[in-house]
Design a protein that fits this description.
The chain is α/β, with parallel strands linked by helices and about 230 residues long. It folds into two domains: about 120 residues, Rossmann fold (3-Layer(aba) Sandwich), CATH 3.40.50; about 100 residues, Winged helix-like DNA-binding domain superfamily/Winged helix DNA-binding domain (Arc Repressor Mutant, subunit A). It contains eight helices and twelve strands. Strands 2-1-3-4-5 form a five-stranded parallel β-sheet, with helices on both faces. A four-stranded antiparallel β-sheet has the order 6-7-8-9, covered by helices on one side. A three-stranded antiparallel β-sheet has the order 10-12-11. α2 packs parallel to α3, α6 crosses α7 and α6 packs across α8. The N and C termini lie far apart (about 45 Å).
């Protein structure tokens, strides 16, 4: 059965092109034009992924993203932002969007991003084989994509999980933002603030004191390093 994608965009020209390319790629596509309709559509029949524009009538895309992230099913979200709206892009990532594209964008690139996010959502591990990574009460299982801290399941987005798994899989090694962007996101070029935002969100979920992180530490002028627990 084809995977279902919900496209949420009030620009008919853009949505027609996006829907056509996604359908040609083999997805079942539904379309709504405002934020309230998007929430109703997801509640009625949860899709496998939502393509979500930021600028929407009734409820904007950022509010829709925030509400979708409160759902237990964790539906993946790819956000569409206007070129140059860095604040919206960063806020969308902070609210839990799994990926984003800036308008104008290539419909083919959008299809590739959707395919990548869905592949990871379907259980593709970061590494070639499934792993169990453990450190100081933190456990990551890359096969079923489960992360637990002191026995409690962590609510991580797809990218947060992949980033944590990659950092834990390379302990005590300084990793640049550019390297993380390529290894976790698969982007050779891109806005490295994406990495910064996701690290900040991860710290809020796994650090005892996010303002003074012990696990994911900043390597000034380079990027980040995962520090294994002393025990």
């Amino acid at each position: 059965m084809a995977q279902r994608v919900l496209v949420v965009d009030d620009d008919r020209t853009v949505s027609d092109v996006v829907c056509r390319y996604l359908e040609h790629a083999g997805y079942q596509v539904d379309h709504v034009g405002d934020g309230a309709a998007a929430l109703a559509a997801v509640a009625a029949a949860p899709p496998q992924l939502v393509v979500l524009d930021v600028m929407l009538p009734v409820l904007d895309g950022l509010e829709v993203c925030r509400r979708l992230r409160q759902r237990p099913d964790g539906v993946p979200i790819v956000m569409l932002t206007a070129r140059g709206d860095e604040a919206d892009r960063i806020l969308g990532l902070q609210l839990g969007a799994d990926d984003y594209l800036s308008k104008p964008f290539s419909p083919r690139e959008l299809v590739l991003r959707v395919r990548s996010v869905l592949r990871r959502a379907g259980g593709e591990p970061v590494a070639a084989t499934a792993q169990m990574l453990t450190d100081g009460g933190l456990t990551v299982l890359t096969g079923p994509r489960v992360a637990r801290l002191h026995g409690r399941d962590l609510a991580l987005t797809l990218r947060e999980f992949d980033l944590l798994a990659h950092l834990m899989g390379h302990p005590a090694r300084a990793l640049s933002r550019a390297e993380l962007l390529e290894r976790v996101w698969g982007w050779r070029f891109g806005d490295q603030s994406t990495v910064t935002v996701h690290v900040r969100r991860l710290r809020e979920k796994i650090e005892d004191d996010p303002a003074n992180p012990r696990r994911i530490v900043t390597v000034w002028g380079v990027g980040y390093r995962y520090e294994p627990a002393d025990d």
